[in-house]
Amino acid sequence: MKRILLFVCVCVFAIASHAQSVANMPDQRIMTQEEAYLVIPNIVPPSVSSSAPAIIWSDDFSSASTWMFENASIPALDWSIETDPMAIPVSALAPMSSTTASNGYLFINSDGTGGGDNDGTPVIVTATTAQMIDCSAYPYVQITFSHNYRWWKDTRGVRISGDGGLNWYEPQTILYPTGGSITDENNYPNLQNSGNPEITTYDISLFAGGRDSVMVQFYYDDNDIWAWYWAVDDVSIAEIPDNGVAIQDEVYGGWWVNYLTAGGLGQDYTQYPMSQATANPYAFEAVIKNTGVATQAVTMYADVTGPTGMTSSHTSNTISLAVTEQDTFVASPMFTPTMNGVYTIDMWGVGDSAGQGAVITNTDITTKTTEVTDYTYGKDQGVYDYAWRLSRTTGNNPAGIPGGFEVGADYDMYANENLYSIDVFIADWSVPGTDIYASLYEIDADPNLDPFPLATSDNYSISVGEPGTWINIPFVSPQALLQGTRYCITIGGYQHPLDSAGCGVSGLGTASSDRLFDKDDHYQNGAPSWYTIGDVPMLRMNFNADTWNSIEDIKSSLFTIYPNPTNGIFTVDTDVNTTYRLEVRNILGEIVYKTTTSRLSNNINLSKFGKGVYTVELHNNNKTYTEKVVFE
After folding, report:
1. What is the pTM for the complete model shown?
2. Which domains does the chain show, CATH number per domain?
3. CB contact set of 282 (below 8 Å; sequence gap of 6+)
4. For residue 523, what are the β-bridge partners?
5. How far apart are CA 153 and CA 156, in angstroms?
6. Secondary structure (3-state) at 556
7. What is the per-residue pLDDT across 436-469, written as a single tens digit (0 to 9) for each?
8. Distance (Å, whole) CA 296 – CA 322
9. Contact (CB, 8 A) for 217 and 79
10. What is the largest CA-CA distance in the chain?
11. Shortest CA distance to 375 belongs to which of 271, 265, 513?
12. Across 406-434, average pLDDT
């Protein structure tokens, strides 16, 4: 079974040095980067210059003839050279956006096998350069490639040999700083979805610098899990430049450092209420790496442009970075907005060769936007990518277990507020008439404890025209949110054989904490379970009292129930002059009475059902209003 973008919150990931076996190549020895220090070639550092790096070798996968393919898949399945950029099986990552995708890219697709887990049908493949690459004139070299993937327990990586394939080495990765795969069965670096394309560069000087028999090998193993895929393109080996700096992991919420003093997680908020922005100003941080040979004195800069054209400049301390070193940079001062509107943030780094002013090297400029608001608190990018399902219909998993889910987003409170409603983007494929609801949880300081439920809205029935749009769901009463507390807002659905709805997602959660609650154990974890997810739900807190007051005014005059408590027979009187849907649910959420009518008075008889508390729902004007009735 494939759990889409999930891992259990309480998992502890072991980050360690890793050696990966190679199918059908028993004579190869796999070494980690730490072992490779024993066989460093005799190299002489070049003089410092600002010349562009020389491309030593490249391949755009336009022909299979330059690669050797081997597999131990059952049944046999190997890499292919795919020429259709839309072959990527994940809509959010399609089409493949590498520079030369249209003339071919390396592709393996475990998702396309449609198999199960641990059923004896693994996908294990390697692609190795058919010819050796001569790097003997270049002591400092790097490999760069474009790729695209989604992770679910599959292993993928690249190996380098400097001796014609006798020994193979694993370059450093985020997960394995002494050498290892990009992902493996338990670990992944970037929230399960890669970039499109993800551009990866490794310093391979230890393995390939000064050597004339260099080979490259890409490997993939789905670990006998119904996993995803890997697409690779535009691979090259180049001389490492004398001077180079690269910026990554740019944030403006304090995700890396400022959260330690400000509290909370330091998430990036794309919609930031003035009350929160004043209490917790924007904090600009990024990771900058020396990608050249010469030592660099590096400084990070951030420029803010506001809604009236105002500007604000921010600068970090200067940090000296030797070759391959990286560090986290924090610009100061923090930025406190003074008015509502859209703010643009430009972030970049500047390297000065050894601080001598001889060569100045700039990173690329990263641009981010955020909006300061009155009432809306959000993290999504505002552009619908795809969606999480709020209900799974019967038969969508191997055991045929349907399920209802809640998709959630965490928010830190830096100032007290009242939460009145939730804004949610409904997936365009959602079925009109599907019932959904909003919930509020408090997040415990102990990460091993589940979120604590605080409030749930009335059911909301999706109307025709609402799929593919934003809707607003109010809570039954205002919810007081306290400074220094983290909360989770969710949108939920129910088990149902036909009705289904989805919550849109927008952007990857690289500086965000988001969740999914499998409340009916559809994924068969043994009990209802919370998972983390790797993308940002289009779920926003709304602090506008008008979104709640208007609903309450309508509800108080819309319908009344009497007698209540009842002996099983009661009357629902309404002031509605149009057709509406009237439903009664038991404590399990099952519908025991349902009618569509335009009558102002409706008699309902529940005497054949058991005593207890029932919920009366009135669906009208794209909204659902509820009242409790007690059957004694």
Report:
1. 0.73
2. 7-239 (2.60.120.200), 245-374 (2.60.40.3880), 394-544 (2.60.120), 548-631 (2.60.40.3080)
3. 252, 253, 304, 334, 335, 336, 337, 345, 370
4. none
5. 10
6. helix
7. 999 999 999 898 899 999 999 988 989 888 999 9
8. 6
9. no
10. 93
11. 271
12. 95
